[in-house]
C-alpha cells in the first residue's frame, strides 16, 4: 500500500477540521488518523514521494503541531496526533522541519506544563517518549526557556516517585540534553534539586531495571566525570565493572532484556562519553577482558539488525580513537583466520540498500577506512575487499543514474560513492595493495565514473533552484566526488599503464577546468588542497590549456566577489520576509512594536497570540544576529580565498611568460646531462673491466683449490695402499717363519719331510682357495671402483651446479659496484689463504717424498725375502736330489707363486 494517498487524505481532513471543528469533520479526521496509524504500525518507511508531500505541504506538520498547543481538544485526538508525530520524526529531514519551522519542542513543553492533573494526563508518557526521540543527538534551540521547562519537568519526574516508564523517559531526556551540552550541564548543576537528583541517580545503580541503571550512569558521567563525585563513582575498581556491564549488555541478545533498544543505545553513548577522558582511556587499555569482548562484538554483525549494527559500529569507531585497542581491532578484523567472517560481514553491511540501512552502511565504510589507515592488512583480506569495492562502485554508479532525478536518493548514493572512493584512495596509499586494487578495479569503470560525474556536475551547475543550500551541498559533493575519482587514477597510474593514459587524458580535458577553478575558489580547505595537487600535475602536461584556466579562474573569483558584495545589504530584506512568513496573524509591525512597549512597561497582555508573536520576534532577532556574524565571517574567508585565487591567476600568467626561458635552460641542462652521461659510461666501462679481471682471478684461485683437493684425495689413496701392502708383508713374514721351521725339520729327518710335504700340499690347496677368494675380492673392488666413478660423476654435476651458482654470485658482484673496497679486502684474504694452501701443498709433497723413501725400504726388504726364498728353493732341490723324484712334488712352482702373491 502506497503512503501518498494516506497523507493526502490526512491533509484534506485536517484542513476541513481546522476550518470547522464539528463532529462530522472530527470523525473524518480521526478516521484518517487511524488509517495513518495502521500504515505506520506495519513498520514501513516513508517513500520519497510521500516525504516530499509532507515537507512541501505545511498543512500536515503545522496543523498537527498546532493541535497539541490548542486547548479543549479531545484527549484521544491528541494521543493519536502524538503517535503519528513519533512515526514522522523517524525521518531526520521531517524532524528538522518540525523543530525549526513548526516549533514542535516549544509546543510540547507547553503541553507538559498545562496537562499535568488534567484529562490529558494519559498523553504525558507519549509526549515524553516523543521528546526523547527528538532530543537524541540533535541540537535543539528554543526561545523563552522551553528547554529549561522540559528539564525541570524531567528532574521533578525522576526525583518524585513515579512509574518506571515515566522515569525511563525522563532520564533519557536528561541524558540526551546533557550529552556534550555545557549550558544544559551548568543549568542542571545549578538547580536547587541538584543534590536530590544526584542521590536518586546514585540510588538508581541498585535498580532492577537496566535502562534506569545505564541512563543514570550516563547522566552522572556527563555532569560529574571530571569532578570529585565522578572520581569516586568511576574509580579504578568501578570502571572495570562499568566496562564489563557495557560490553555484556551490548553483546546480550535483545530478546532477553526489556527496553533493549534504549539499553544498548545508552550503553554505546555512555562508552563514547567516558572514553573521551585520558584516565578512562588508560583503564580501557589495561582492561584484560577487552580482546574477548571485542571478538564477541565483532561476531554480532552477522545476526544484528540495522539499528544494532549501527550502534556496534559506532562503539568500534570510538574505540579506534585509541592506539592500542585499535591495533587489537585490526588484528581481529583483518588478520585472524577464525574471524575472517567479521570482515566479510562488514563488507556485507556496505552493500546493504541505503533506504533502510543508511547509518550502518556509512559507519561500516568509515570503520574500514580507519582500520586501513592504520594497517593495510594481508593480501588475503584485500582480495576480498577489492572485488567488493569495485562491485560497490559499479552499483553506486548505476543507482545514481537511476535515482538522479530524486533528490533524497540521489544525495544518499552520492555520499556513499564519496565514502567508497575515499576508502579506495586510503587502500591505494599502501604500496602492497596497489596491485590487487588495480587488478580488481578496472580503468574502464573509473573512466565511466569520471564521465558520468562530469555530466552530473554540468547538469547541477546549470540548474538554478530555489533551495540554494541543497543545491550548494549537491555541487560540493559532486566536486568532491570528481576530485577523489581523479585522485584515485593518480594513485593507480604507476601500477597500471592504462590508468596512466587515462589520468593524462583527464588532466588535458578542457571540461575539467571550470570545476578545478570552482574547487579552488568555492570549496573548503581539503578540496582546495586536492585540486591544487591535481593542478600541479596538470601544469606538467604539454597540452594543458593554462591560458583558458587563468581566464576561468579570474572570472570565477570576480563573480564570487560580486556575490559576496550583493549578499551583505540583503540581510534586512531577508529578516522582513522571514518575519512575514512566521506571522500567520498578518499583523502590522506597529502592532508588534506596541505590544513590545506594553511588555516593557509591565502591562499585562490578555491575548496569547501577542505573546506568540513576541516570542517568534525575539527568536528571529537572535537568529539574525548569529546569521550576521556568520555572514561577516564568510565575507572574510571569501575575501581571503578570492585574494588567493587572484594570486594564483597572476602566478599562472607569470609561468606562461617564464616557460620559454625555462625551455632554453632545460635544453642547456640536457646537453650538460648528456656530457655527464658519456663520462659516466666511460667510468662504467672501466669498472666492468676491473670486475672482469677480478672474476678471472677468482676463477684461477678456484681451480688451484680444486687441484689441491685432488692431491689430498690421491695422498689418502696412497696411504691406504701402503697400509694394505704392510699387512701383506706381515703375512709373508709369518709364512717364511713357518717354512724355515719346516726346512730345519727336513734336514734333521727325512721322515719329517714327508709330513711337511703333505702339509705343504694342504697349504697349496688352501692357497688355491685363497687365490679364488682374492679374485672374488678383486671383482668386488672393481665394482667399488665403478661406484666411485659414478660418485665422481655426481660430484662433477654438483661442481657444475656450484659453477652456475658462482656465476649468479658473479652477476650479483657486477650489480654491487659500491662494495668494491670490501671485495679488495676479500681478495687479499684469498691471497693469504692461497699462500697457506701452497704451504700445505709443500708439506704434502714432503710427506710424499717420505712415503716414497719408505716404499723403497720396503722394496729392499722384499728383495731380501726373495733371496731367502731362493735359498730355500736350493735347499729343497738338494733334498729332492737326495731323496729321489719319485714321491716328491715340484715345490719350485709353489714357491714362485708364493713370491708372486
TrEMBL record:
Segments forming a coiled coil: 656-690, 729-854
Query: Is-annotated flag, keyword 4Fe-4S?
Result: no
Q: Name one Pfam family in it.
A: CIP2A_N
Superkingdom in the source lineage: Eukaryota
Instruction: Print the keywords alphabetically.
Output: Coiled coil
Q: Which residues form the CIP2A N-terminal domain?
A: 45-559
> What name does UniProt use for this protein?
Protein CIP2A isoform X1
What species does this protein belong to? Oopsacas minuta
